[in-house]
Design brief:
Layout: H1 15-28, E1 32-36, H2 43-54, E2 58-61, H3 67-79, H4 83-88, H5 96-107, E3 113-116, H6 124-134, E4 139-144, H7 148-158, E5 161-165, H8 171-182, H9 194-208, H10 212-223, H11 230-244, H12 251-270, H13 274-302
Parallel strand pairs: 1-4, 1-5, 2-3, 3-4
This protein binds adenosine-5'-diphosphate (ADP) and magnesium ion (MG).
Length: 303
């Protein structure tokens, strides 16, 4: 595919815009919606854009924790309350349950959308009020990184919600981000020549794999240098990106496995179980071979 960075015209129907339309359509029908995707995929960006679009009929909450203060701002905003009103209501002594009840009352007949970001940070007690809100007349638009532990908690809410998984952006969408970053009015990115600009665009598109935050971070790195050259892209940008790709350290797991194999050998011998003894011996030999090979691989990686 011949990429010509910065030369493409805007596409009217990107994947994200389709998602946005779909989300707005669901919310209008009072359907709870849950946005799912890894960190940096663009959940917060989407939530904020939708909150802006819905204006007064929506309220954006950055985090469900701590629950009372998270809901307090929403309650004040929707009710148009002042400090004196809160004092009169004795708000400071209210329980979270109470805040939720009053919030639901405030939203009655309003077709209101409560936008809840970072729901992966939710606790067991918070998931109770989330459930109550989700089953009320208030419509919820949530976002979360879905990990195994949180899944169980969130499932209590998910079943009422339509889940939308944000996919990585297309190459064109990433290019749009790069273009915006390069032409940033306050601090544009400067290039040595056209070649460097092309190479930079291509590298960011390929390395980001559609994850917007990676593209943004690479552009920020380029902004930090006086002039982006081919060498900069090759030696600073590409290597920094590779180094930041996490790899899981298996050493503790391997040590435990070796310990278990050793124990197994003793158990086999103690019980006079010849098979177990042989199997454990074979595993131990395999572990030693792996151990011998492992450091070489990591040395190669560092080079
Ligand atoms: N559609 C998009 N267009 C341009 N930039 C985006 C888009 N989505 C996300 N970004 C950028 O990517 C970064 C991470 O996005 P964010 O919405 O915070 O992700 P998440 O909430 O999923 O972790 C931000 O710097 C944001 O500006
Ligand atoms: Mg976010």
């Amino acid at each position: 595919m011949a990429l010509t960075p910065f030369g493409w015209v805007d596409e009217p129907h990107t994947k994200r815009q389709k998602h946005k339309k779909e989300i707005l359509r669901l919310l209008r029908r009072k359907q709870n919606v849950m946005l799912i995707g890894p960190g940096g995929i663009g959940k917060t960006t989407m939530l904020r854009e939708i909150s802006d679009e819905l204006a007064e009929s929506a309220y954006y909450i950055e985090s469900p924790n701590p629950p009372k203060s998270a809901l307090k701002t929403a309650f004040i905003e929707i009710g148009g309350f002042h400090d004196d009103d809160l004092k009169e209501m004795k708000f400071s002594s209210w329980t979270v349950q109470q805040v939720v009840k009053e919030l639901i009352k405030l939203c009655e007949g309003k077709n209101f959308v409560l936008v809840l970001d970072s729901l992966d940070r939710i606790t067991v007690s918070s998931s109770d009020w989330l459930k109550e809100l989700a089953e009320s007349e208030v419509t919820i638009l949530g976002a979360a990184r879905k990990t195994k532990e949180e899944k169980e908690l969130l499932d209590r809410f998910f079943w009422t919600a339509k889940t939308i998984t944000l996919q990585p952006l297309s190459d064109r969408e990433i290019l749009e981000i790069i273009k915006a970053q390069v032409n940033d009015s306050l601090s544009p990115i400067r290039f040595k020549d056209k070649n460097a600009e092309h190479f930079f665009g291509k590298t960011v598109v390929t390395s980001s794999k559609g994850i917007p935050i990676v593209a943004v971070q690479m552009c920020q790195k380029a902004r930090g240098t006086k002039q982006v050259s081919l060498t900069f892209v090759r030696e600073e940008l590409m290597t920094a990106h590779k180094a930041s790709v996490k790899y899981i350290d298996l050493t503790p797991l391997i040590l435990i496995a070796v310990g278990l194999i050793g124990a197994l050998r003793y158990i086999g011998r103690g019980m006079g179980n010849q098979e177990l003894y042989i199997i454990a011996g074979t595993l131990a030999a395999a572990a030693i071979i792996i151990r011998v090979l492992m450091p070489r691989r990591s040395r190669q990686r560092k080079a």
